[in-house]
Amino acid sequence: MVKITDVARHAGVSPSTVSYALSGKRPISEETRRRVEASIRELGYRPHAGARALASSRSNVLALVVPLRTGIHVPVVMQFVVSVVTTARRHDHDVLLLTQEEGEEGLRRVADTALVDALIVMDVQLTDPRLPLLRSLDLPSVLIGFPAEASGLTCVDLDFRAAGELCVERLAGLGHRVVALVGSPPEVYVRQTAFAQRVVQGFTAAAHRNGLAARVLPCEATPAAARAVAEQLLREQPALTGVVVHNEPVLEPLIDAFQQLGLRVPGDLSVTAICPDELAESLQVPVTSVALPSAELGARAVESLMRKLDGTAVPESTLLAPRLTERASTAPRDAP
């Protein structure tokens, strides 16, 4: 195993100079730093994690706070987790995953024990009870999600309001006049989860702007619930020709239910969704969708934290513009 003394000998410097080059605790010349870094690369030296943490007063660990509450679709959550972990490793950081619904208590415990250098917080609510503590902590944090009042916080997310609007605008542009949003499970709205609320806001605003008849229905994440929602929509909106789905687990069962009820997709009913591209592409009728950019959001959250840890200013708000991909599930509405 290569030791720090081996690096020092190879670079022609003292072991303490190598240590300063790694920790940044004392200034060294740029030429010396480059020589040390070249020796580290050539010899394949990897500093001991504990020694590195002591030298830098950091743990080199990020906390990803994602409480696995009811109504959360775990496969999508895991896409965010993979992105955060992969990006963190590129910065020589590990990730501590916190999945219990502990609220402020869990955040306080992690902060007080110096387990982590910084926090990434998911499943953000409009009036999230964790926000006052996050604003007061010395630990840097980034939220994947936007609360109602985001001042004093660093937030990144897809612009979910614009995503809801984009789906409706596409349906309106195809001539559909009666539309519905099949949304997240009811408990997601009860918690006022921010992204779900903003999809509803965007859907409703665009429907009103285009003069469309519109209905919003939450849906439990089961095939039986999808069937019940399809039946309810056709009872309440017999002229329904356009649907937006923001609930990944019921996308395929919902399309199946409508087809079993006699509606062809897209001949009688156009369907759009907000979901990962791989899901939209995999269905028997590929679905026109707004992509959920989990990989980009996870990476941006980590990159923002790295800049914060380095003392570099970052934007408080980063909203990614939605991108809609046309597929086989949408078509112009036949004239009556």
Task: Compute the number of strand runs.
Answer: 12
Please work out how many helical segments DSSP would assign.
Answer: 14
Low-pLDDT regions: 50-56
Biggest pleated sheet: 6 strands, parallel
User: What percentage of residues falls in helices of 4 or more residues?
Assistant: 40-55%
Cα shape = elongated
Could you walk me through the main structural features you see in this protein, from its secondary elements to its overall organization?
The chain contains 14 helices and twelve strands. It is an alpha/beta fold and 336 residues long. A six-stranded parallel β-sheet has the order 2-1-3-4-5-11, sandwiched between helices. Strands 7-6-8-9-10-12 form a six-stranded mixed β-sheet. The N and C termini lie far apart (77 Å). The protein is elongated. Strand 9 (270-275), helix 13 (277-282) and strand 10 form a beta-alpha-beta unit. The model is unreliable at 50-56 (pLDDT under 50). Helix 1 (4-11) packs across helix 2. The chain has helices at 4-11, 15-23, 30-43, 49-56, 74-90, 104-112, 131-136, 160-173, 186-190, 194-209, 223-236, 251-260, 277-282, 294-309, and strands spanning 61-65, 94-98, 118-121, 141-144, 155-158, 178-183, 213-218, 242-245, 270-275, 288-291, 317-320, 324-325.
